[in-house]
Hints:
There is one protein chain. The protein is built from eight helices and eleven strands. It is α+β, with helices and mostly antiparallel strands. The protein has three domains: 2-85; 95-193 and 291-333, Alpha-Beta Plaits, CATH 3.30.70.1660; 204-278, Double Stranded RNA Binding Domain (2-Layer Sandwich), CATH 3.30.160. It has an eight-stranded mixed sheet, sandwiched between helices. Helix 1 (2-11) runs antiparallel to helix 2 (20-54). The protein is flat and about 75 Å long. The model is unreliable at 216-223 and 278-283 (pLDDT under 50).
Amino acid sequence: MVEIKNLEQATSEPDFWLDQKKAVVVGKRLEAAKQETDVWQKLLAEIADAEELVALEDLDQQMIDTLAQQVKQLTTRLDGLEFYVLFNGPYDRADAIISIHAGTGGVEAQDWAQMLERMYSRFVEERGWQMEIIDRVLANEAGIKRVMISVKGAWAYGHLRSESGVHRLVRISPFDAEQLRQTSFALVEVLPDLPETEAMVISETELEWEFHRAGGPGGQNVNKVSSAVRLKHLPSGIVVECRSERSQHQNRAMALSILRAKLLERQEAEKLEDIGKIKGKVERAEWGRQIRSYVLQPYQMVKDHRTNYSETDTTAVLDGEIMGFVESHLRDKR
């Protein structure tokens, strides 16, 4: 309610519509906040009605059965809403950008990176979110070297941020004639895709741009103009590449958005390091920090090493059913 009050006050300012981009963002946020509040108020009203019925003394069996069914439905809805209370990060409502990088190990690791890409694609599709490949580099034999994916949907970053870190696969290699067990690694990074009005301002003098044709699989050009973009942030050395089948203008905008997210992540990491000096260990998405193991041989189990949550249906997990891991991490953080 406090947020709604603050947003309504912002929309009533005389100069509110002077910055139309910011006004649209604030308007959408206000509408979403009101919808969320309405859902909670409706549920609380129905719970109050059920409590009044329970207090009655002359309930017949049919009324008792109806009330029991109603309470069951209310409990299910309450559990669903309670899950969203776990989202307490400042950017949890935002869209997300997922990057997957194959680790060392050649074709085995590159195949594992593609398996993770498929897992997240299924997870995104199941939620009805929108997904777009920003940048993708295929490996020579099988799999991918890296991929960057834009995910647009309600609470996308809140759901996916727990996936940041190193993912480990243990299996019998399909690429090894001797059928030996292999261990592969891939790094997953998840960034919030923030509206320009909420992101930091970057001076054009800090940027170095390069433009070239977007190459498709096998090296062929997917277009005849220089639409692919390579952006370097000179002060930090961060490099971003976008080579999707879009216009140069769209790829420029996406590259800037990713750069802002990476700079924001760096700022947050620096804050965490300062906090870590006081509180102890701080988790970061980088090599050497394995967050989850997917063991397909000699037994089957997927285990998150941060929460100790595990599942034995590895096929379902690799088909995108990762909500158990998402929720366990959110509850652990909270």
